[in-house]
Amino acid sequence: MALVYKDDVREKILEVAQTIFGKFGYKKTTVDEIAAAARKAKSSIYYYFKSKEDIFEAVIEKEASSIREEVLKIINSTIEPVDKIKQYVLIRMKGLTELVNFNDAYRNQYFDHLPFIEKIREKYDKEEIGLIAGILNEGVAKGRFLIKDTNLTSIAIVTAMKGLEMPLFINTENYELENRVNSLLDILFYGIVVG
Q1: Angle at which helices 100-107 and 6-28 pack, to 10 degrees?
Q2: CB 137 within 8 A of CB 161
Q3: What is the pTM for the complete model shown?
Q4: Which fold has domain 64-190?
Q5: Quick one: three-class SS letters along 12-59?
Q6: Which of 39, 74, 112, 182 could lock onto 87 through a cystine, CB 3.0 to 4.6 A?
Q7: Distance (Å, rounded) from C-alpha 101 to C-alpha 58?
Q8: Using CA atoms in the order 76, 78, 81, 85, what is the torsion angle rounded to 10 degrees?
Q9: The CATH number of domain 1-49 is 1.10.10.10
Q10: DSSP E strands, 53-104
């Protein structure tokens, strides 16, 4: 008989919950449905998670960490800072189209009554600003970027990316995404003023 580890059971519950939340949304999903789909008693679900909110928070964190892992590969690579910014933005935007629950929590106002959602939004924004500032600082140190305030510039980049999100969710074709990202980055790198 195979041993079942606590982490394996928790991970199975998260996988099932991720699918159910993604299909029916947070409001329409119940702990009973998650338990049934995971083939666990409801009490087993509550052994690992305090509430439906706790399960959803763990799902969001899991999804966010998958984007984070991809982004960190780029940041820790030896490619040029200009290419790091391009890759970062593309990975981030493509990732957002694939992470249904993270998108839902990040965009929708009906989650505003859940304090952990605002915590996740704030944490993700701060982390993203820090990651971009790191790339910009590397570019400044290498003489590739001329930036007076890398923190302010990273805030501007994050704000611009957020502006691309809503149209992205309407039309998720990669060609369109890459064109939008390249246009954003052209403006960022070369500006709009001639001479």
Answers
A1: 50
A2: no
A3: 0.75
A4: Tetracycline Repressor; domain 2 (1.10.357)
A5: HHHHHHHHHHHHHHHHHCCHHHHHHHHCCCHHHHHHHCCCHHHHHHHH
A6: 74
A7: 11
A8: -50
A9: no
A10: none
Does residue 128 contact residue 69 with C-beta atoms inside 8 Å?
no
Token output for 82: 């200009």
Residue 91 is encoded by which pair of tokens?
A: 């990975």
Q: Tell me the residue type at 163.
A: G
pLDDT by residue for the chain (195 residues), tens digit each?
Answer: 444 566 788 999 999 999 998 888 888 899 999 999 999 999 999 999 999 989 988 998 888 888 888 889 999 999 999 899 888 988 888 777 777 776 666 666 556 566 777 777 788 889 999 999 999 999 999 999 989 999 999 999 888 888 777 666 555 555 577 777 777 777 777 776 665
Cβ burial, residue 161 (10 Å; 0-12/13-18/19+):
buried
Residues found in the chain: 195
